[in-house]
Amino acid sequence: MTGNARNEAGRIDALFVQSSSAFSSDDGEITLSGLAEATVYFSDRPQREAGHLPSKRFLELWDDDTTNFVVEPPHAVLSFLEEPAEALADVVVVLHEPRLNGDQLTYRVEVLNGTLPSTGGPCSLFIDTFGRSLAPVSVRGLRRPRRTSASRAAV
Fold first, then answer.
1. I need a labelling partner for 61 at 20 to 30 A (CA). Which of 40, 53, 70, 114 fits?
2. What's 15-84 look like in SS3?
């Protein structure tokens, strides 16, 4: 990405992480079961920001039809926490049409790299929007208070 991570509108391009206690896939869909209540977001230099938002609010990024995930679906890496670590390999997907039902989040997916297992244990979904020109901004209206220069120096 070139230039400042914060765009003209004062919003940041962020990466997201969703974690769950179990995983399943079937017929072009993945389901994260035991989904964490919060989706973590962060951005890198030069404008470092980090925080979290309710996972149900994350789904709002599919609501608008002009500059959102419907127009520019995000790529993601599904990473499994298994013992041994080689038990399940990471899978790269494109995410579409999220549906939340309680603590189960289902996406329709296109697999770009790897093979989806039918089931798995704890996993994280790393969702990439960094540097995508039409990507919505994850934290619009949810920014934490600005840090002072002294607190920035500690980072």
1. 114
2. EEEEEECEEEEECCEEEEECCCCEEEEEECCCCCEEEEEEHHHHHHHHCCCCCCCCCCCCEEEEEECCCC
What are the structural domain ranges in the chain? 15-153
Angle in degrees, CA 142, 73, 109, rounded to 5: 115
Q: Identity (one letter) of the amino acid at 93? A: V
